[in-house]
UniProtKB/TrEMBL annotation:
InterPro entries: Pur-cyt_permease, Uracil/uridine/allantoin_perm. GO terms for molecular function: nucleobase transmembrane transporter activity. It is a multi-pass membrane protein. The chain crosses the membrane at residues 56-77, 98-117, 145-168, 180-200, 220-241, 262-284, 304-329, 341-361, 373-392, 421-441, 447-463. It is found in: Membrane. It holds the Pfam family Transp_cyt_pur. PANTHER family: NCS1 FAMILY NUCLEOBASE:CATION SYMPORTER-1, NCS1 FAMILY PURINE/PYRIMIDINE TRANSPORTER. It comes from the Bacteria. This is NCS1 family nucleobase:cation symporter-1. One of its GO terms (cellular component) is plasma membrane. Coiled coil: none annotated. Keywords: Membrane, Transmembrane, Transmembrane helix.
Length: 561
């Protein structure tokens, strides 16, 4: 629980309040390494070959896609970095203190889905090791329940338990884990790529593996689709990147970590993936998308075990970083008094079993369908949060008000819910789901994240601006402000907003007309208190009543006659 007496216990616990900022760029870099170096990342990258693209086109799509992810990561990192709070809490700025349950629940459920998928992928590595060295277990593959074999359930349960143990140790243990998990994967993947090149001979490595013959226009279109799929894959951890950027010492450290962890790191990873997939065609006579299958085909027991254990470690790393942590913060936000970070994460882990994740990710087509559907939710959320922070609130956050359930708090809105954000989200998500479900629109489905960002941000910005403009025009009719209309106004009244933006008061509209012998005390959204009096520009003061809007800023006013 927070030591701040102004924080409502319904909105805060020790995991949600502002965190200590002690992460350097290397910690952010390691986070992205764990995110990139995973079974999911490999499978998604390799699945792009199914689009009919040549290896160099796949590589180009991967590079362009990750640069887009880097730009988006820098944008979404700042609100949490400056405030020190996770995604679930910073969402209160746009959605309201209670309305933020909606984006937190959506991201939490997505994290549960990905947690289950990554756990299943990791369990496949363990299953391959067991079957390779203990063939007597093969009969356990013949019986199944809910689409998964008996041995599959055993391996899934074991990996599930190992991840839960690491997660339960807390963020410090997770930080140490991701610092070494990512680099270890590089060593094994690079060794595998070099082995395939040595085995086949460089002159036998083919970088044109597709059996499809696409026209130039089709190649361009499929490359664009591939770029969109890369962004969609990262859209989940991208949305809640604030869960980690909150620990960054400053934004420069975060940006540096994003650069080395995304375009630089991912380019190297992409080159290795393309080399491995291309090498499997030359060595084994078929293109193998699954790294587990590639490792299992090597006729060397030690190499197989080393490779599979490395893949296993990498997948556990990303699962804890990208999914367990996210779900922990998101579900804890729903009931802070009862759900700690650990308890909420365990609820998510249990939920991941019931979604049968192996049915969501067992073919390239299903992979793309899953990504398109998730992007229909993630894109609009991303767009609304960015529009609110950068366009509406001018990159300012009132941290105390994020934890206040008082009606006068900046993020209380209408009974704790910002209806404009909710309406914008519902409209944008509905359009995205139609693109996935209606066959005639499915060619647009891979672009769901981009479409969602555009629609969510534009809907929200338009509704917010219209609301503010309406309030500003009619402000002098609001009796609660207690502003007398029959006094001589100041000829030039100025108000300092956020200590940065200087706004001129429209005195002719009756927005602020102080009588000659009284003052108006103005409380800014960032808790800067200003008193305006005749012939006096500004000085600090305290008190508040009512609410008025000037431009896009919320202002609270009290008069002392």
């Amino acid at each position: 629980m927070s030591d701040n007496p102004n924080y409502s216990p319904k909105l805060s616990n020790e995991d949600l309040i502002p965190a200590e900022k002690n992460w350097t760029w290397y910690n952010i870099f390691s986070f992205w390494m764990s995110d990139v170096h995973s079974m999911g990342g490999y499978v998604v990258a390799a699945s792009l070959f199914s689009l009919g693209l040549a290896s160099w086109q796949v590589l180009l799509a991967l590079l362009i896609g990750i640069v887009i992810v880097q730009v988006a990561a820098n944008l979404v990192a700042k609100p949490s970095q400056i405030s020190g709070v996770p995604y679930a809490v910073i969402s209160r700025q746009a959605f309201g203190i209670y309305g933020a349950y909606i984006p937190a629940l959506i991201r939490g459920l997505i994290a549960v889905s990905w947690y289950g998928i990554q756990t299943w992928l990791a369990s496949n590595a363990l299953m391959m090791i067991l079957l390779k060295f203990y063939p007597a277990l093969h009969p356990l593959t013949l019986t199944e329940f809910a689409g998964l074999s008996t041995i599959g359930w055993i391996c899934f349960g074991f990996i599930w338990a190992i991840q839960a143990l690491v997660f339960w140790k807390g963020m410090d243990t997770i930080k140490v884990f991701i610092d070494w998990a990512g680099p270890m994967v590089y060593v094994v993947m690079l060794a595998l790529a070099l082995w395939l090149v040595w085995k086949a001979g460089w002159h036998h490595i083919s970088f044109n593996l597709s059996d499809k013959h696409l026209s130039v226009n089709q190649q361009i279109m499929q490359t664009i689709v591939a770029i969109a799929l890369v962004v969609s894959y990262f859209s989940g951890p991208l949305l809640n990147f604030g869960d980690f950027s909150r620990y960054g010492k400053d934004m420069q450290q975060v940006k540096k970590g994003n650069f080395w962890g995304l375009p630089f790191n991912f380019l190297f990873f992409a080159i290795i993936v393309v080399m491995i997939v291309s090498g499997t065609f030359s060595v084994f006579g078929k293109m193998v998308h699954d790294p587990l299958e590639t490792v299992a085909m090597i006729d060397n027991g030690f190499v197989v075990v080393l490779g599979l254990l490395t893949v296993l470690t990498a997948t556990i790393g990303i699962n804890i970083v990208a999914n367990f942590v996210s779900a922990g913060f998101d579900f804890s936000n729903l009931a802070p008094r009862f759900l700690s970070f650990r308890r909420a994460g365990m609820i998510a882990a249990i939920g991941s079993i019931f979604i049968t994740p192996w049915n969501l990710f067992n073919s390239p087509e299903l992979i793309h369908y899953t990504l398109d559907t998730l992007a229909a939710f993630i894109g609009p959320l991303f767009g609304i949060l960015l529009a609110d922070f950068y366009l509406i609130n001018k990159q300012q956050v009132l941290v105390d008000d994020l934890f206040s359930d008082q009606p006068t708090a900046a993020y209380y809105y209408q009974k704790g819910i910002n209806r404009k954000a909710v309406v914008s989200l519902m409209a944008a998500v509905s359009i995205g789901l139609l693109l996935v479900l209606i066959p005639s629109f499915q060619f647009l489905a891979p672009f769901n994240w981009f479409i969602g960002v555009l629609l969510g941000s534009s809907f929200y910005y338009r509704l917010s601006r219209e609301s503010v403009a309406s309030k500003t025009r009619n402000i002098h009719h609001q009796q609660s402000l207690n502003i007398p209309q029959n006094h001589q106004c100041m000829q030039d009244g100025f108000l300092m907003l956020n200590d940065l933006d200087l706004w001129k008061l429209e005195t002719t509209a009756g927005l602020l007309c102080p009588p000659r012998d009284s003052q108006y005390h103005v409380l800014m959204k960032n808790k800067v208190l200003i008193s305006i009096a005749p012939n006096q520009r500004m000085r600090t003061h305290s008190s508040l009543i009512g609410r008025m809007y000037l431009g896009i800023q919320t202002i609270q006013v009290q008069t002392n006659a």
